[in-house]
Backbone:
């Protein structure tokens, strides 16, 4: 099964950018949990912790498509490096303000500033889209590999964040996250051989990527997917804390990511004949149904098992949605297009963190799982309501003519 991924590592120049994204993804996966643990331990408020995390994700969501457009116009390394440096400095400021007990508004400002940077995920996927532009089956495997790498980082990242923050000092998780993310991004951007070429200005299509048919629908469904992730993250920490073992939240979150990782590995080796739109609807249905049992978990280990199963639907959902996003836009807008999709996820994570934190304080951790369950239901409804529109957009991107309109 894993042999299907071997050709990716034989692409000339691919190893440095794969290694770089591995570090940056692990660091990126640590930020949310690291901030939640840091603030909840220092300030004693999950509401404040979720709000600060939400602001950072909201800023990242706004910056992502804008910087993605600049990357498409001017190149990855030229645009991304200055913002990576700015992010590292701002993260150091967050650590200092937390440790010194600075006013809460300083955490919002500096953590938001640290999130003004282009996401490595869309840039990495843009490289594979360039490398395998004429090989759709290989591109599917590459996109699946990207998602598996994302999920693997969410197995390791939260565990590291909680472990160092609880064993050392509350800010240790954010410090380690910043170091890993910065080193990883610099390594990735230094791999010039696989950087996609910039499309000449005169050959670029007009308009924004988000205006391409179908892309807004995919991004909106991904907002709900992100709500599931953000709410699960903060609720897991609170659920474990209520039962006297905050560190066990890393097992719950790691189980969710592990289930998704295994599913992603299997999914990436499959060759499909069905449309991406149909696969998206099926993945959304599974994501909703498998999250429901979290409402009835009777303890830490039962919840961990439920999260492993629930996580198995997320990789197919994300692989399919990002593959569809890449297909719906022209080559000159591919980074921007996938950044729009990722922005949907980030907006959702931001909202999920904030609403999840509110739900915990209003209802308790167990009942707060109603938030991700409702988000899963809404994601499915969004896709089903716009199903025909998505199918037509997918066919048009592949050059398949629309069926003739029947006479009145």
Residues:
């Amino acid at each position: 099964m894993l042999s299907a991924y071997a050709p990716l590592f034989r692409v000339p120049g691919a190893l440095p950018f794969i290694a770089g994204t591995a570090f940056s993804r692990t660091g990126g996966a640590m930020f949310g949990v690291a901030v939640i643990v840091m603030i909840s331990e220092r300030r004693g408020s999950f509401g404040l912790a979720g709000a600060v995390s939400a602001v950072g994700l909201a800023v990242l969501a706004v910056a992502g498509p804008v910087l993605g457009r600049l990357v498409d116009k001017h190149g990855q390394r030229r645009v991304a490096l200055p913002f990576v440096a700015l992010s590292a400095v701002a993260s150091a400021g967050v650590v200092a303000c937390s440790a010194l007990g600075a006013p809460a508004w300083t955490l919002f400002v500096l953590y938001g500033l640290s999130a003004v940077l282009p996401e490595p995920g869309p840039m990495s996927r843009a490289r594979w889209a360039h490398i395998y532009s004429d090989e759709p089956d290989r591109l599917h495997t590459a996109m699946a590999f990207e998602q598996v790498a994302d999920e693997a980082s969410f197995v390791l990242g939260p565990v590291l964040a909680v472990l160092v923050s609880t064993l050392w000092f509350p800010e240790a998780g954010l410090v380690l996250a910043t170091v890993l993310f910065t080193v990883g991004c610099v390594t990735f951007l230094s791999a010039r051989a696989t950087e996609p070429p910039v499309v000449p200005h005169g050959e670029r299509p007009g308009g924004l990527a988000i205006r391409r048919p179908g892309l807004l629908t995919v991004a909106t469904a991904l907002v709900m997917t992100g709500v599931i992730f953000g709410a699960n993250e903060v609720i897991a920490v609170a659920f474990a804390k209520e039962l006297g073992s905050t560190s066990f939240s890393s097992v719950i979150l790691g189980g969710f990511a592990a289930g998704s990782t295994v599913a992603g590995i299997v999914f990436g080796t499959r060759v499909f004949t069905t449309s991406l739109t149909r696969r998206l609807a099926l993945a959304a249905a599974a994501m909703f149904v498998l999250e429901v049992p979290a409402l009835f978990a009777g303890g830490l280990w039962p919840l961990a098992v439920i999260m492993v199963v629930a996580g198995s639907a997320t990789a197919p959902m994300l692989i399919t949605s990002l593959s569809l996003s890449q297909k719906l836009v022209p080559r000159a807008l591919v980074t921007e297009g996938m950044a729009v999709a990722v922005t949907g996820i980030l907006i959702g994570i931001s909202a999920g963190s904030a609403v999840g934190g509110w739900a915990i304080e209003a209802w308790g951790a167990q009942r707060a799982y109603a938030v991700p369950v409702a988000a899963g239901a809404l994601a499915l409804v969004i896709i089903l309501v716009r199903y025909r529109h998505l199918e037509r957009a997918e066919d048009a991107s592949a050059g398949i003519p629309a069926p003739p309109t029947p006479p009145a």
User: Anything to note?
Assistant: The mean pLDDT is 82.
